[in-house]
Amino acid sequence: MHRTHVVPDKIRELISPFLASMGLVVWGVELAASGHRQLVRLYLDLAADTPRTPERRGVTIDECARASRHLATLLEMEDLFHDPYVLEVSSPGLGRRFFEPAQLPAYVGQVIEAKLTVPRDGRKRFKGVLTAVEGERVTILVDAAPEAFPLSFDFEEAEKVRLIHAFDAISEGGAGDDASS
């Protein structure tokens, strides 16, 4: 286990039993700086066995608030942060970041963006259709035809991998157009 994973793993361990009782799971934990404070971001998603319905397609604001209050109490008891910190709890959102390769297979066929830690052919950012995930190995079809090419990398070679959400097309007139003018 890398040292950088110790605190996120501990946060995951602390909150997971509470989230399971709500039908939720930890999607990811992100630590960053926020001025002179530590920023702790916790992303929640529906558990695999929680049915998704038109009324329940994701995590609610109330669930995030409950999880935030519970986690804040646990963090104070565990004293993981010796300095002031800011806690944010949310769903992963439409442009969700992937924290582990096991999260990717459900998104095969969709567009993702990967920012690699080491450049390939002079660039670090690649956007394309996710075509395969085999263990730690991720393959995307980068760029548009006819210049498209496959790119494979180990998940650990990426600084960040996120979903590029395709919004439904807006009518040709655009949103808010007034035809009476």
Reported by name, the CATH topology of the largest domain is GMP Synthetase, Chain A, domain 3
Distance between the termini: 63 Å
Mean pLDDT: 88
What's the CATH class label of the largest domain? Alpha Beta
Architecture of the largest domain, CATH level 2? 2-Layer Sandwich
Shape label? globular
Give unreliable regions as ranges. Answer: 169-181
Strand content: 35-45%
| Structural class determined from secondary elements | alpha+beta
Sheet with the most strands: spatial strand order: 4-9-5-6-7-8
Order of helices and strands: HEEHEEEEEEE
- Count of helical segments? 2
Function: Required for maturation of 30S ribosomal subunits.
Family: Belongs to the RimP family.
Domain Ribosome maturation factor RimP C-terminal: 100-164
Pfam families: DUF150_C, RimP_N
Provide structural commentary.
Pfam families: DUF150_C, RimP_N. With 181 residues, this protein is an alpha+beta fold. The protein folds into two domains: 3-90, GMP Synthetase, Chain A, domain 3 (2-Layer Sandwich), CATH 3.30.300; 97-163, SH3 type barrels. Helices cover 19% and strands 38% of the residues. It has a six-stranded antiparallel sheet, with no helix packed on it. The protein has a three-stranded mixed sheet with strand order 1-2-3. Helix 2 links the parallel strand 2 (37-46) and strand 3 (85-90). Helix 1 crosses helix 2 (61-78). The longest helix is centred in the middle third of the chain and has 18 residues, at 61-78. The termini are far apart. Residues 169-181 have low confidence and may be disordered.
